[in-house]
Design brief:
6-stranded mixed β-sheet, 3-stranded antiparallel β-sheet
């Protein structure tokens, strides 16, 4: 299976897809999947653009809206995670993951899916120590604080502490990353005689930068489709009642970690319903170049039918509602810290590179 890995997309879908087509022609290969490691910028319209944490001069529509509207179709199955420059209101609709556009799948604030017989997991956002033990209390319309904290992986030095903990625990054969806008390959040895992880960080989508690499991963023959992962759905079902939706601190107890019964229950449901994610549904108007100015005065997020169907499948309540940006306080057993990916020294195309990241 040939998987193309891309660093920070910054909404430049046209450029990345065109680059992959040219690569296929030049090398005589077929790309099976594209992975994007953050800053995807799934901006549907000008309202979404106002929810992206970037300086005004970098607020560009770019090209995602064409794929959202159906004007263009992603030529490769695309899976992405969120970074620190995202339309956070839209990604919140797909908190558990889902189709952001046809053939373009968001892994959610954290998620795992299968593609063929390959398991792909992702952690969205970036790490900020002062928000690590808080929950995702932010709701649109965002203020100067919440437009940033909404994408923080909640429990920094260079790199991401929670991502490092996962890497050392799971010991995956491959780990891809972005955010710092540099190409950095490494081999990580787990113990003296343990397995190794091939680590690769990539640059942003910009001329002359190392933003793309094709990896050949051994796999069963296709056809390849994105499917739900049974174990991840069991984890989601087990912990949904303590998902991070308030500022309250949460400590996981060991007895909460057993998901065996949930996994058997999920397996039965998926065998009956099928493993494919629910179909894409538009929930907002797409950008119209002939009428680029939005008349909307209120920015919010709506109940995405994909998320509603997903929760109904797992027989879980919908807990994401609230227009209060301070969060909805629930009882003591219903609060936990958030989990997001990355960090904020983002490099923008020219000067004032860090202007969007002055969280401190």
């Amino acid at each position: 299976m040939k998987i193309a890995v891309e660093g920070c997309m910054h909404g430049e879908l046209d450029i990345v897809y065109d680059t992959l087509r040219k690569l296929e022609e030049a090398e005589g290969i077929k790309i099976d999947l594209l992975l994007c490691c953050g800053d995807f910028q799934a901006v549907r319209n000008t309202d979404d653009l106002r929810c992206v944490n970037v300086p005004l001069k970098y607020r560009n529509m770019n090209s995602f809206w064409k794929y959202y509207s159906g004007q263009a179709v992603a030529p490769y199955p695309t899976i992405f995670i969120g970074g620190n420059h995202e339309a956070s209101n839209y990604l919140w609709e797909l908190y558990y993951g889902g189709w952001a556009a046809p053939n373009i799948y968001f892994l959610g604030f954290a998620g795992v899916v299968k593609f063929g017989n390959i398991r792909i997991g992702g952690l969205s956002g970036i790490h900020k120590q002062h928000n690590y033990h808080s929950g995702h209390y932010e709701r649109p319309p965002y203020n100067e604080q919440t437009i940033r904290s909404v994408y923080h992986v909640n429990n920094r030095t260079l790199g991401s502490k929670p991502a490092a903990e996962l890497l050392n625990k799971l010991k995956p054969p491959y780990w891809f990353s972005a955010h710092l806008h540099c190409r950095f390959p490494a081999i990580i040895q787990h113990g003296e005689n343990g397995p190794t992880t091939k680590f690769l960080a990539l640059d942003k989508c910009f001329r002359g930068r190392n933003f793309l690499q094709v990896i050949d991963i051994p796999s069963n023959p296709g056809p390849y489709e994105i499917h739900y992962d049974e174990e991840w759905l069991a984890i989601t079902r087990r912990f949904n009642s303590v998902f991070p939706l308030t500022r309250r601190r949460f400590t996981m107890r060991d007895e909460q970690l057993d998901t065996q019964d949930d996994r058997q229950w999920v397996r039965s449901k998926l065998n009956t319903r099928g493993f494919k994610p629910f179909d894409f549904v538009q929930t907002a108007p797409a950008f119209n170049p002939s009428n680029p100015v939005s008349n909307s005065s209120v920015i919010g997020s709506c109940r995405n039918p994909q998320t509603e169907s997903f929760l109904q499948l797992l027989e879980l309540p919908y807990l994401l509602d609230s227009s209060n940006s301070e969060g909805v306080e629930r009882n003591e057993s219903s609060s936990q810290p958030g989990n997001t990916l990355g960090d904020e020294d983002i490099e923008l195309p020219d000067e004032d590179e860090d202007a969007a990241d002055d969280d401190e």
